[in-house]
Request: fold
Amino acid sequence: MEILKYYFIAINILTFIIFGLDKLKAIHGKMRISVKTLLSLCIFGGSIGGLMGMYIFRHKTLVRCFTLGIPIILVFQIIIIFILNI
Reply:
């Protein structure tokens, strides 16, 4: 179970950084990170990092699949953690 804690820490830090990187790319008109990639990172455990990235970087805050999707993903992840008793 200890390795699972490190996984969640790492995936959330990675997701946060990727959201920031995508914001920088948006500002500079560079090729962007896909919505699929951003949401996949959240689904695989990075939903807290994704939410933090959204609001700290003010990125994707007007996109409904992010403003509704990431909190829903987070709720499901919390439910799964309680069910599995992690």
Summary: The chain has a mean pLDDT of 95. Residues 51 and 70 are 7 Å apart (CA to CA).
